[in-house]
Write a structure and sequence with these properties.
The chain has 95 residues and is of the alpha+beta class. It has a 3-stranded mixed sheet with strand order 1-2-3. Helices cover 62% and strands 18% of the residues. A hairpin with a 2-residue loop joins strand 2 and strand 3. It is built from 4 helices and 3 strands; from the N terminus they run βααββαα. It folds into 2 domains: 40 residues, YefM-like domain (YefM-like fold), CATH 3.40.1620; 54 residues.
Length: 95
């Protein structure tokens, strides 16, 4: 996978678009940090590609929440404790 800076993208956009057709994906960096991914798509699959990206982000967010819960020991809650927590949160929201 090729990395390119924002400056390269701005200064050589035409070359980048040509390279993208063979690279398929490129990572755009700003001050050495990844900030975006360029990926080839076609008119027929742009919505499908966006949906796949969104699914991947959602799965990543769920995994992060699960890891955070496990670190806090919440993965050992019993079903009745989980239900009590849900009830307490709902009561707090209705106020």
């Amino acid at each position: 996978m090729k990395f390119l800076s924002v400056r390269e993208l701005r200064g050589s956009a035409a070359r980048v678009w040509v390279e993208l057709s063979t690279e398929r994906e490129m990572v755009v960096t700003n001050n050495g940090r990844p900030v975006a991914i360029l990926s080839t798509v076609s008119e027929s699959d742009v919505e499908e590609s966006l949906a796949a990206i969104r699914r991947a982000r959602a799965m990543s967010a769920v995994a992060a929440l699960q890891q955070q819960s496990a670190r806090r020991g919440l993965n050992r809650l019993r079903p009745d404790e989980i239900e009590a927590e849900i009830v307490a949160v709902r009561r707090g929201r209705s106020k």
